[in-house]
Amino acid sequence: MFKNILLLLDGTIDEGKISPFLNKLAGTNLAVVYAVNSEWTGILGDEWISSPWTRDGFIKYMSEKQLQEARGILDSIEQKAEILNIHLKTVIKAGDLKSIIHSLCSTANEYDAVIIAADISKNKAAQISKILPYPVFMGPL
């Protein structure tokens, strides 16, 4: 049984699946990292945005919406964790999942297992599992 678990989420998670999944983790120490992907800001076409001001406003609006969504999901996790006696830490990080995992490798010895509940390719999954020195579980919750 794993006692110290790192759960990585991104915007692809169905919030309704998180609560039943947390039931399986009762009594554990859980760190939840929500990855807010900000890569899209560099690929926006400006043909539909009339000015740099409009573009900046749109990027700010979308970033705020992503953070609001992440905070909502983490708040629901915190409520459920309190009921289930799950010792919880939550963090929101910006960037792609692979770079976030790289940044977490310095604390790798804190965890017994990592659960990546994100929509990632098989190639990226293989790269991630090579980075981490403990069991990695990937796929939908």
Key phrases:
141 residues; alpha/beta; 4 helices
Fold and architecture overview:
The chain contains four helices and five strands; from the N terminus they run βαβαβαβαβ. The chain has a single domain, classed as Rossmann fold. Helix 1 runs parallel beside helix 2. With 141 residues, the protein is α/β, with parallel strands linked by helices. The longest helix has 32 residues. The chain has a five-stranded parallel sheet, covered by helices on one side.
List the helices and strands and how they pair.
Elements: E1 4-9, H1 15-23, E2 29-36, H2 52-83, E3 87-94, H3 97-104, E4 113-117, H4 122-131, E5 136-138
Helix pairs in contact: 1-2
Outline of the structure:
This protein is of the alpha/beta class. The chain contains four helices and five strands. It has helices at residues 15-23, 52-83, 97-104, 122-131; strands at residues 4-9, 29-36, 87-94, 113-117, 136-138.
* Number of separate strands: 5
From the spread of the alpha carbons, the general shape counts as globular
Assigned CATH class: Alpha Beta
Q: Distance between termini? A: 18 Å
Helical coverage, percent range: 40-55%
Q: Mean pLDDT, nearest integer?
A: 81
